[in-house]
Write a structure and sequence with these properties.
3 helices, 26% strand, alpha/beta, two-stranded antiparallel ribbon
């Protein structure tokens, strides 16, 4: 089963995404950009995708996306 990093600080949105996709994917969830970075350090090579909220408590807008991209992961 594919592993997806879900970076979402809203528990309702995260639950909805997980519920809609749980038949095909496993999720690991982060609620901030810092937490996402820690998860990427641990399981980055095992991930198949990153679903990224661009409005997080510690980052906003395209800088959130750029920060994740700078890790040079080979995942969509």
């Amino acid at each position: 089963m594919s592993l997806i990093l879900l970076v979402e600080d809203d528990p309702t949105d995260a639950a909805l995404i997980e519920r809609l996709l749980s038949a095909d994917y496993q999720f690991v969830r982060a609620t901030s950009l810092v937490a996402a970075g820690q998860i990427l350090d641990q399981v980055g090579q095992e991930l198949h995708a990153v679903l990224l909220d661009l409005t997080l408590p510690d980052s906003r807008g395209t800088s959130t996306f750029v920060t994740i991209c700078e890790r040079r992961l080979r995942v969509p």
